[in-house]
Amino acid sequence: MTTLSSLREPGVLLWRGFSMQEFANQCFGNKADYGKGRQMPIHYGSNKHNYFTVSSTIATQLPHAVGAAYALKMDRKDACAVTYFGDGGTSEGDFHAALNFSAVTEAPVIFICRNNGWAISTPISDQFRSDGAVVKGRAYGVRSIRVDGNDALAIYSAVHAAREMAIGEGRPILIEALTYRVGHHTTSDDSTKYRPVDEIEWWRTTQDPVTRFRKWIESNGWWNGDIESELRSSVRKQILHALQEAEKAEKPPISDLFTDVYDVSPSNLREQEHSLRETIKKHPQDYPSNVPI
Ligand SMILES: Cc1ncc(C[n+]2csc(CCOP(=O)(O)OP(=O)(O)O)c2C)c(N)n1
């Protein structure tokens, strides 16, 4: 599946085999980063894994996903596109344009809306007065389903069926996964300023999807505390090793800042490159020494 995600889907990449080293290289923007150090950290992308570079500008990935899906259909590929976004994303014009285009062009695309109740400090009651996102899909003529987003097996089964339909019937599908953002929006957010601690605790202690899934695999004898501690310690080691390696690695060459957009570099870009090189020559102490000029 061609994937166009927002920032909350590194799990898709992990599942497809993107390595810890590849994650770390992107975060450090080193020479091995596929984005050549041009993106902010956590904006992963990988051709090899059919994963478009993450979009942090809300909902811009949705029309792109429809275009990618339509191209797959034109090329008669046995494949579809999938795109992810939050409840906040449904207020963007791009969401509406994408849904309408996908319905009219019968593009094989799966829209996965993570309705986690909050867009930073904006609750869904200030986001829309419709019954969530699922009804919007239906209004545009897109088959739509609502799933318990904290039930891993329900999600697996819904996405599996959606993929079969998208490819087999050549049409878009919308999945609204109902969930809750237990954590703060980012490390610079303190969500206790705008929502009750009791509410967060209720979701954390009674609805946590990882705890639910763990209980299920434990009850089947496939998991226990020992396996978990071993896994946690091995993954921790892998992450630390990957971060150390990524930090040591050379940065991309300066010339990479000015390539890949134009076939022939325009004069203003050439001037900027010249000016940057002159500045580095004048103030070498202010620039990292491991950046090839
Ligand atoms: C077009 C645009 N407007 C504003 C922002 C700033 N911003 C970043 S995340 C966010 C909230 C996103 O909420 P939601 O779409 O519900 O996704 P969630 O983070 O809850 O998964 C906002 C407003 C942005 N990245 N892009």
From TrEMBL:
Residues 5-254 form the Dehydrogenase E1 component domain. Keywords: Oxidoreductase. This is Dehydrogenase E1 component domain-containing protein. GO terms for molecular function: oxidoreductase activity, acting on the aldehyde or oxo group of donors, disulfide as acceptor. SUPFAM superfamilies: Thiamin diphosphate-binding fold (THDP-binding). It comes from the Eukaryota. InterPro entries: Alpha-ketoacid_DH_E1_comp, DH_E1, THDP-binding. It comes from Citrus sinensis.
